[in-house]
Amino acid sequence: MLFDAYEQKGLLFNMNFKEANGSYAAYRGDLVLELGEVGDAHGHRKPPVTTIKNTIVLAEGDKIKLYVGSLDDLADLPKVLAYYKADFAANVLLILFVVNINKPLVIEHEGLSISAIGMQEGLIWNELIDIAALDKGDFKGQSASEKIITVYKALGDYKAKGDKVSFDEALKRTVELKRAGRGPV
């Protein structure tokens, strides 16, 4: 399974689950974009320097069909592609929720069309099921991987919103926003 290979490379971080389901494999958690340095003589690494948070990834066979996650900074997009593009299916659906943009964009970069949606707070999963026009009742009795498969199938006719721009143009449209954090009440 593709996610087993990622785990061996130390690319899975804060994993919620990875699960196979027939020809599909699903993962939820963070994915590493920049490994931490080796911290001791045994080769154990320090925490990653950069991650893409709250990813929802669906692979069929050894190719990623759905890749969703949250970036704090749009400038980290090349790191996503450096680590994971080789595993993208030709028709991969890429949706990134980005903290430092305030208007949706469709970024054309390295032969990919990437939907970038501004989001400073909220839950990626809830936003994704809203985009897919699903509700919690659509997932009754499903396993974690079945839920992601359901979302993927519901996104079959998804059309990204926003201006079509190059990555360089998208970088010019970033704003000074930070992820909204919540502490104890």
Describe this structure in words.
This protein is α/β, with parallel strands linked by helices and 185 residues long. It has one domain. Helices cover 22% and strands 37% of the residues. It has five helices and eight strands. An eight-stranded mixed β-sheet has the order 1-2-3-4-5-7-6-8, sandwiched between helices. The longest helix has 11 residues, at 144-154. It is globular and about 50 Å long. The termini are far apart. The model has no long low-confidence stretch (mean pLDDT 93).
Characteristics of this structure?
single chain, 185 residues, alpha/beta, 8-stranded mixed sheet, 8 strands, 22% helix, 37% strand
SSE blueprint:
Layout: H1 2-8, E1 12-21, E2 24-34, E3 50-60, E4 63-71, H2 77-84, E5 88-98, E6 105-109, E7 112-118, H3 124-131, H4 144-154, E8 163-166, H5 167-172
Parallel strand pairs: 4-5, 5-7, 6-8
Antiparallel strand pairs: 1-2, 2-3, 3-4, 6-7
Order of helices and strands: HEEEEHEEEHHEH
What is the overall pLDDT average? 93
Give the structural class: alpha/beta
Q: How are the strands ordered across the major sheet?
A: 1-2-3-4-5-7-6-8
Number of domains: 1
Shape: globular
Q: Compute the CA-based radius of gyration.
A: 16 Å
